[in-house]
Amino acid sequence: MNKAYLGIDIGSISTKGVVIDTANKIIADCYIWTNGNPIEAVKSVIAELYRQMPKDYQVCNVGVTGSARRLVGAVLGARVVKNEITAHAIGTLTVKPDARTILEIGGQDSKIILINNGVVSDYAMNTLCAAGTGSFLSSQAKRLDVPLHEFGILALTSKSPAKIAARCTVFAESDLVHKAQIGYSKADIVAGLCRAIVLNYLNNVGKGKQIREPIVFQGGVSKNSAVVREFEKELGAPVYVDPNGHLMGALGMAVLAKREKTEAPFDFNIANMEFKTVGTECTLCANNCEIINVYRGKTLVDSWGNKCDRGGTKE
């Protein structure tokens, strides 16, 4: 039986999963919307990965990252649970070892990661406003009645992009409506949005950062060819987009799972198991810590939330 390793990136907007072999080659992958239910989303991803996997492979370890990593890590019995910065850096360096700057725009947040000699030397994140993220683009695509996958293609046809104030979602939307009312074409408005996203990113997330080549752009927005072009114009340098750029966090966690010295074979039947979370409050001191318990059936799998050891695991 050949060894394989599973990586999951569970975000607020999308859930990604990959299975790699011992050579870090992706042998199964899945990308779906989280839809506000991370447990059901990850169960769907697990089922799809199992469907794709060659049957002569056994997953030996699991790694999890993302906003719901603690919850999903408990559900999957993950050996490795890491933050997104680590996961994206490892995933990127796996496919492009000489990368020095990672630009990442996801569904609800953006980040920049600077790498020196294969080690993360600096990073920054923007999680306060959704302006310039994937969810922002998606909402504007619906408003303009343009399929999201055609956004970049349409933008590249523009000869005179509109100036859109995209530093705030509210201002951007009102500006977009105004531009449409005074006669700007959809192509010019879309091109203006793509440019505004890049300027917003560089003036906020990338502010004060020394962006060095090779530059890698990833996350769902990296699929937008117009945004890629605008980054290249502003940075005056080529920007590399890997075909699996939307899976880098999951890939990074699969690689980290492979690096673990001890193994814990994974049972794909997890997709058919029932999980639930129950919130309780510890009353042993004035902190009144909110404790989250995760159950598989009636069995307590994990719990967290207490600020000290007094509360411990609370049934």
Order of neighbouring strands in the sheet with most strands: 3-2-1-4-5
The 3D shape can be described as: globular
**What is the gyration radius calculated from CA atoms?**
21 Å
CATH homologous superfamily caption of the largest domain: ATPase, nucleotide binding domain
Would you identify the CATH architecture of the largest domain? 2-Layer Sandwich
Mean pLDDT: 87
Instruction: List the helices and strands in order.
Output: EEEHEHEHEEEHHHHEHEHEEE
- The total beta strand count reads 13
* Residues in β-strands, percent: 25-35%
Number of helices: 9
CATH topology call of the largest domain: Nucleotidyltransferase, domain 5
Verbal overview:
This protein is an alpha/beta fold. The protein has 3 domains: 2-91 and 250-272, ATPase, nucleotide binding domain (Nucleotidyltransferase, domain 5); 97-241, Nucleotidyltransferase, domain 5, CATH 3.30.420.40; 275-304, no CATH class. Helices cover 34% and strands 26% of the residues. It is built from 9 helices and 13 strands. It has helices spanning 38-52, 69-76, 84-95, 134-144, 151-155, 169-181, 186-204, 225-235, 248-259, and strands spanning 2-10, 14-20, 26-33, 57-65, 80-81, 101-105, 110-116, 119-126, 215-218, 239-240, 275-281, 290-296, 299-304. The strands form 3 sheets. The chain has a 5-stranded mixed beta sheet with strand order 3-2-1-4-5. A hairpin with a 2-residue loop joins β7 and β8 (119-126). α3 (84-95) crosses α9 and α7 (186-204) packs across α8. The longest helix is centred in the middle third of the chain and has 19 residues, at 186-204. It is globular, with a radius of gyration of 21 Å. The protein starts with a strand and ends in an 11-residue tail after the last strand. The mean pLDDT is 87.
